[in-house]
Amino acid sequence: MVGLLFSCRERSGHRIIVGVSDMLKNPATKYRPAPAVDLRDRQWPARTLSAPPIWCSVDLRDGNQALAVPMNVAQKLELFQTLVNCGFKEIEVGFPSASNTEFAFNRRLIEENRIPDDVTIQVLVQAREDLIERTIESLVGAKRVVIHMYNSTSPAQRRVVFGKSREEIKAIAIQGARWIQERLHRLQGTDVRLQYSPESFSATELDFALEISEAVMSVWQPTPQRKMILNLPCTVEVATPNVYADQIEWMCRNIRNRDCLIVSLHTHNDRCTGVAATELGLLAGADRVEGTLFGNGERTGNLDVIAVALNLYMLGIHPNLDFSNLGQIREVYERCTGLTVPPRQPYAGELVFTAFSGSHQDAIKKGLAEWETGTRSHWDVPYLTLDPADIGREYREVIRVNSQSGKGGVAYLLETEFGVELPKDLQREFGPIANDQVDALGREVRGEELKAMFWKEYVQRTAPWSLIHFHADGVDDLFECRASMIRSGNELALRGRGNGPIAAFVHALAEAGVPRFEVTQFKQHSLSEGEAASAIAYIQIRTAEGTTRWGAGVNTNIELASIQAVVSALNRL
Ligand code: KIV
Ligand code: ZN
After folding, report:
1. Residue 256 carries which DSSP code?
2. Domain 44-337 grouped into CATH 3.20.20.140
3. Domain spans of the chain?
4. Which of 124, 289, 300 to mutate to test the pocket of ligand 1 (most atoms within 8 A of CB)?
5. Counting runs of H as helices and runs of E as strands, what totals does the chain give?
6. CB 303, CB 346: distance < 8 Å
7. Which CATH superfamily is domain 465-571 in?
């Protein structure tokens, strides 16, 4: 038998309820499946999204309620302005009856004329007379408002929180609707729209959600010209998103006077499917979406409205919200809320447009190059769902070298950190050598370590041959060289001729009895390392049997660097 024990501790304003338990062998003894909706002819799966919804930001209310330290008036004002700049035309600005700060915020917005004419502010209130009274007071003088009333309707809320029957819960909603209706005359000159939310809708029996919503409609009497907003929240996600879509479609098809309603979605993210539930809910017939920037909100958050908007954008549908400068929006959000946007947050996270994998980088590079040719009409770059530049971001590559890295990463680090520009074929040769050594270390390596590996493998190869002295003289294509070298402890003097210093050296080696080989590739460039400006030469040789090897030499004298590179290649045979 698995025991569950709860204890309660209080610490500086936090009550901590501790549960001690293990995961169950059979969770079905404790948890049950979400009930399916009986909607066999559901239409939403065959539909596609073709237009943006009406958006409503609830950052300043739902988002704010979930902050450890709620925003002060100055912070709310800054975030309000940012939301306006993004293009939100409906903004839930608070719960004015909940605190003086909330009330004062409303008053400042209105009295300081901070609300653009085409923006409607929305306020939340419970179905309680005193709270409705204060809410109406907070709105006097506003141009356009939505009064949003809610009460909880799910069986768990009815039983545990209110201890009331369905009828009694419905009576609360009807009474609240009447209290609001009776006070509307106090908002003369204000364009008022009304909104009702059966809170915890997605966990409420559909027939009851319908009954209570219609009861509120009977009081408010919406018309096609003067619609009311029916917000159907997924207050807590308890099922897969298709179930929410079924619930929305069922409501849209069964509620009376659908044409008098703006059906609105308000999802949270407990199962990490807030975005999916919203998108399916739109397919199911909803007109409007409530959410927050970056998904701030209680527990796992509200819907991330940016994600839904940019998901539409990448399908070619302008969301009517502007996130051209997502970085700046994120900065204001982080400053005002004290939260940070996680690095993998869709569209906005630090790492979203960064590729670590060599194969991804390669594909993206090719895709971007193709896009730049202008030959494609539509964006189709591997791994990038949209052009980062459209939202003020940039694509970045991060090169890290571990045993899984490709040769490209190794070459990139050597080039960017030390100016070592390995020829392509040398990259192919050194890549696996570096990978084996990194694998043996069992960790990522820094550029410095990688350079040491390259130097050890190529530049510092002095056995069995080591060069003591080299000198070449010549004109046009006739050169003579003299060299002294040590082989297995014995010093040898070499002489040779050729059409250049390298050819003369190769000839000298052959004369000394070294099996014949030819130089097949050669590259050199200057290398500025520390104080002494030096050069690096890369040389590939091929033996008579067809074996190829690369060598590299570094010297302040460019000619000597290439001769050392020949010796390095010889030593690597
Ligand atoms: O999550 C919710 O149900 C709410 C309501 C007040 C709409 O925030
Ligand atoms: Zn909510």
Report:
1. T
2. no
3. 44-337, 358-456, 465-571
4. 124
5. 17, 18
6. no
7. Alpha-isopropylmalate synthase LeuA, regulatory domain (3.30.160.270)
Most informative mutation of 62, 123, 236 for ligand 1 (most atoms within 8 A of CB): 62
Which residue in the block uniquely carries the two structure tokens 């027939």?
A: 207
Residue 179 neighbours by CB under 8 Å, 6+ apart: 127, 129, 132, 133
CA 228 to chain centre: 35
Q: 157 CB under 6 A from ligand 1?
A: no
Tens-binned pLDDT, residue by residue, of the chain (573 aa): 444 555 666 666 677 776 678 999 999 999 999 999 999 999 999 999 999 999 999 999 999 999 999 999 999 999 999 999 999 999 999 999 999 999 999 999 999 999 999 999 999 999 999 999 999 999 999 999 999 999 999 999 999 999 999 999 999 999 999 999 999 999 999 999 999 999 999 999 999 999 999 999 999 999 999 999 999 999 999 999 999 999 999 999 999 999 999 999 999 999 999 999 999 999 999 999 999 999 999 999 999 999 999 999 999 999 999 999 999 999 999 999 999 999 999 999 999 999 988 789 889 999 999 999 999 999 999 999 999 999 999 998 876 777 666 677 788 889 988 999 999 999 999 999 998 998 899 888 888 999 999 999 999 998 999 999 999 999 888 999 999 999 988 999 999 999 999 999 999 999 999 999 999 999 999 987 554 669 999 999 999 999 999 999 999 999 999 999 999 999 999
Radius of gyration of the chain (CA): 36
